[in-house]
Amino acid sequence: MSVSDYVLMEESFRWYGPNDMVPLAFIRQAGATAVFTSLHQIPYGELWPREAVRERVQMLADHGLRWTAVESVPVHEDIRTGRGDLKTLFANYAATLKNLGAEGVKTVIYNFMPVLDWIRTDLKHTLPDGSQCLLYNPAHFAAFELYALQRPDAEADFTPQQLAGAKKFWDALSAADREQFIRNLIDVFPGCKLGLTISDIRAMLAKYDGMGEGGLRKNFIRFLEAVCPAAEEAGVKLAVHPDDPPFPVLGLPRIVSKAADVEALFKAVDSPANGLCFCTGSFSANPDNDLPLMAGQFAPRIHAVHLRSTQRLPDGSFFEADHLAGSVNMPKVVRALLNEQDRRQREGREDWRLAFRPDHGHTMMDDLQKDLTDANPGYTCIGRMRGLAELRGLMLGLRYAEA
């Protein structure tokens, strides 16, 4: 048998649109055949016109690529807080799903993380080999909470050692360094710059006063109940992205962080459209998550896959490790995902193939010499290309082993 005889998961790359520093031609050269992308130019909560969807589909097709998953159709903050004109927001989201489905885009990733999206305290952490990666340090995040945001009672969320580390870290920063540190934390929304300020974050947090985990989950279920019927009608699968990091931050709950959260979500809204984006990196930052077990447990409801690994450290920090290193047993995870893909294929399902993408690659080699001011952190080309090649090799090795 030749390499081409082995059925792997669909190799994809994330692409942030025409302004992405990584052109579509490079994605093809990396070996990917599909992309995860979004219409980042459309403000949160507004309808995606079918014509705009069709234009993006054609743009990708012109480069020999398929739009395999939307990443993402953002959930407006009013939906999370349960405030504002929810009827219009739900209607726009449902109509967007129908427009995507009508143009053949059948997987939609989204998240339900309140206020901020993913959080890292260092976007250029240097590893021993000289490459750079993303890192979360709880002491540094405590410094943001205490001295920049000045959130009441934030001290209770950190250990004495973390609080001491926070003061030492903050005192060592210049005024310019503090401003850059704050900007890195509050303006990393995927594909766009919202220009938020500390005052904006405080105002957003105030809308969650008294909500708690139960209230946030109630708003999440209301959203799914409103849009899942439209997704089913359009043949679209919704794939919720886990919380990143997978534990409470900013004094707010996060409700897609562990296996029990996913179980509760599927039980509350038992729709075939209600599924999971299995992100090994996000889940792996919580030491209680057994990634291979979860991959098998939730396999029938996994609609999209992000493969990366974090390395957890004793002080609660974690950084983005090599794709086949870190805290994730990647061979066992990929084995479980290939088993699920094989099961779907045996059933004759039209949508049997799983799509994955390498996530949060290291900045390395020539990319270290480039001006990355406008780049999306974690999404330079070479590091992700390395990750894609490693994951491709892993899949081929598993297939050869079973032959």
How would you explain this protein's 3D organization?
The protein has helices at residues 24-29, 50-61, 77-81, 86-102, 138-149, 160-172, 175-186, 198-206, 212-234, 259-268, 280-284, 291-297, 330-346, 381-402, and strands at residues 10-14, 34-37, 66-71, 107-110, 122-126, 132-136, 237-240, 274-279, 302-307, 310-312, 318-320, 355-358. With 403 residues, the chain is an alpha/beta fold. It folds into two domains: 3-117 and 210-312 and 320-402, Alpha-Beta Barrel (TIM Barrel); 122-202, no CATH class. It is globular and about 60 Å long.
CATH superfamily of the largest domain: Divalent-metal-dependent TIM barrel enzymes
Largest sheet: 8 strands, parallel, barrel
Number of beta strands:
12
CATH class of the largest domain: Alpha Beta
Shape annotation: globular
Q: In angstroms, what separates the terminal alpha carbons?
A: 9 Å
What's the number of structural domains? Answer: 2
Which structural class should the secondary elements be placed in?
alpha/beta
Residue windows where pLDDT falls under 50 for at least 5 positions: none
**Total helical elements:** 14
**Overall pLDDT level:** 95
- Share of helix among residues? 40-55%
Order of helices and strands: EHEHEHHEEEHHHHHEHEHHEEEHEH
Gyration radius, in Å:
21 Å
Provide the spatial order of strands within the biggest beta sheet.
Answer: 1-2-3-4-7-8-9-12
CATH T-level fold name of the largest domain:
TIM Barrel
* Known CATH architecture of the largest domain: Alpha-Beta Barrel
Percent of residues in beta strands: 5-15%
